[in-house]
Amino acid sequence: MKTFEGYRRANGSIGVRNHVIVINTVGELAGLTKKMAQLVPGVIPVAHQAGKAQYPEDLEQTIRTLRGTAGHPNVSAALFLGMGEGDPAEEIVSALKKDGHHVHAITFQKGQSISVVLNEGKLWLEKAMERSRNEQKETADITELTIGLECGGSDAWSGITANPAIGVCSDAVVRDGGTSILAETTEAIGAEHILANRAVNPGVGEKFLKIVKDYEMRIRDTGEDIRSANPTPGNMAGGLTTLEEKSLGCIKKGGNSPLMEVVAYAQKPAEKGFIFMDTPGYDVESVAGLAAGGAQIVLFSTGKGSPTGSPIVPVIKIGTNPKLYEIMSEHIDVNAGKIIDGLNTIEEIGEEIYRKVIEAANGVPTAAEKHNNQEFAIWRLAETI
Amino acid sequence: MLEYSFEGFIREDGTVGIRNHIGIICSVVCSSVVAKEISDKVPGTVPFVHGNGCAQLGDDFKLTKNMLVGISSNPNLHSALLVGLGCETNQISGLLESIPDTKPVKGIGIQQMAGGENTIKKGVEIAEQWAREAAGQERQRMPLSSLTVGILTADLDEDSLFKVAPVIGEAVDRLVHNGANVIMGLSKTLEPAGGLLSERSAREEVKNRLRVMGEGLQRKRWKEISTEAPAYQGFSEKERSQAVLEAEMTGTSPIKSLLGYSEIPAERGVHLITVPGNIVEALSNMASSGCNIVMIVSSRGVLTGSAALPCMTITPKNQDDYFDELVDFRVGEGEVSDQAEAVIADLLEICSGKQTSLEKLELGEFSIPHIGTTF
User: How high is the ipTM of this complex?
Assistant: First the structure.
């Protein structure tokens, strides 16, 4: 049985990192969120521009993402900054507290001075950092691990090397009792029948087909063709010709395990095993959704090379071709290009990825972590009002 | 009438900046951390990072691209370094083609440079060179006709409006009379005054749009979630009376145009501009439409400014305890004309280099609105 050393949270979940974060509920506070984080070394700012002037369903998704981000098992403590009356910060914090999370909300009210608020936050964060330093690791089973599957800057090798190798790892994690979440609905378009056939029951299959169809409809309603933006210019330079071709390669990351459940963006799965999450093909937003849905580690294949990471989860980069590894090794954790050179089989690279997962779970920093790549963005469903 | 002037930085196309920022601008969220790191390493640079740039379609994508073109062109920027990833929808080459040739502009990409480390190294090299050039440039005395002033209202209650609006209106009239451009944010709270404002426009198209808005026709809504909302909704008496007060801030001169996203005024005078409900996005749009400075008129002060523009915060005087350290100017009980004169004096000092409260606190952000979903 595979195990790793992680941080046990009060609600029973297990984290592979022990972050202390500051996070804002509305865009107006993004600047102060960064300022607040700078006051205490080691604190990570999770700043964004969402949370204001959004339509209801869009706002609901934003709040679900913020809650999932702050309540993530990799987070030891989270400080929320909110603005004025009716701000969701207090509500999110009280829900997270009930679930045993170490969280605190500071809501700016009329009459407060910034320096007083910054000082209050600083004191809370200093204590939270000290508390996190004293938290001990314990041994956890792979059944408690959830990985997310993502690709960014795909090329023609993605579906031949890195993605099938990720699929091998995903199947192995599922076989060992863990959970693996495939994301990016855009990149299921044209390959949806294959995944739907793997659904554990007709209900799950239908739900999956529905989210893909809704996705296409939503795009068509705007009068646009998804194929005009996807494949992207970089995908085409990398040798991909159509979205269908990209999708067929993309879903290889999901291996061959049965599809157990389909979840919304930033929603935590109820089942274990192989899961699909409804996210956009936009990497940073998709990774934020996977993390907010509870994935502790994200696997990310890239053909063109992308430095992006996450403020919450270690992101493991798998390069699709040998040339990429040669020129951009600083951003790559696993070189799946070795498959092309005949040095390794897909199976062997899959095993190497699994070893990297355990290594990262035990605390070894990934390439993105070494470079402090903490890009963050929330999937927006509609215009700013 | 006094002869107003300020000291600014003249650009190659004759436009004038009141700051000499070197903009480090990411084309896509994937290069945001790299862009920020370049900026962190070179004093005098300002990072323009945002969450957009890829997996966008149609008008939503065009808005992102146009806003980055507008920001790069803003006269407050001495120069602009565009930092891309390489495979994104929003290609650096497309941005470079669209940015007018008025200042030093360059583009670099992480994939083209073979990694973040090289990109940061190259970016720092370029930015340091520009920072030296910018430091050697001196301010020159400029007439008001080279200034564009934005006005944005934020959480204004009726009492505050009553005190502040006449002063701002008088100041706007004087600014416009002296040749400045004034761009007022067309906030939701101003919409009910559309009928009144329409009478001040000579252009039929502007007149009609303002009239329709004043009647309370709802903005286009995202249909899937707003099916219950009525297609037509009027305004209450209170909304109308507050809007009339807010409209007073535009002064009395003709309304020249209604500007959309990243639209630069074609003639000088008073204009209205589309602003989303997110204050950072509203300020970003004003910056990409060529504003040099924004007067934020508020009951309480705001907690963020713009990365590109000094924001002069104006509140009524009787609320000393409200975010005191954020306020630049307090409107008191004195004569309207004296206070308007004082507003202009303070505004021009800021234009000539005096830091605003938000600048001192280093609270300046940038963000691009969405008019659709990402895919």
Answer: 0.94
